[in-house]
Amino acid sequence: MRCAQFRTALSARLDGEPSGLPGIRLDKHLARCPGCREWCERAERLRDQVAAAAPDGPSPDWSARLLARLGAESPVGRAPQGGRAAER
Q1: Residue 32, in any domain of the structure
Q2: Among 5, 9, 20, 22, which is most buried by a count of CB atoms within 10 Å?
Q3: How many domains does the chain have?
């Protein structure tokens, strides 16, 4: 099983959803995989920051503002300055 599959399961577990994998299997992978452990720690911090910013749950307006802000700050999908986006 690849780390991407474990990270999908960890994301579901963080959201309180069924992970599709036994918890013990996820915990064992986290104990052995520093990359997934770091990913999970970052995801937990992000979840906590979102919860602190919208303690009653994100409203549609709050979510739209967050997504717009993330899109404006994210370099994904944008061409580097002075050039075109890399072609695949």
Answers
A1: yes
A2: 9
A3: 1
23 lies in a domain? yes
Q: Which 8-state DSSP code applies to residue 61? A: H
Which amino acid makes up residue 18?
A: P
d(C-alpha 19, C-alpha 6), whole Å? 9
* Residue 68, in any domain of the structure: yes
Q: Which two structure tokens, joined as six digits, stand for 76?
A: 């994904």
pLDDT band at 73 (very low <50, low <70, confident <90, very high): low
Q: Residue 77 pLDDT more than 80? A: no
Judge whether 77 and 70 are in contact, CB under 8 Å: no
Q: What CA–CA distance (Å, rounded) separates 6 from 73?
A: 27
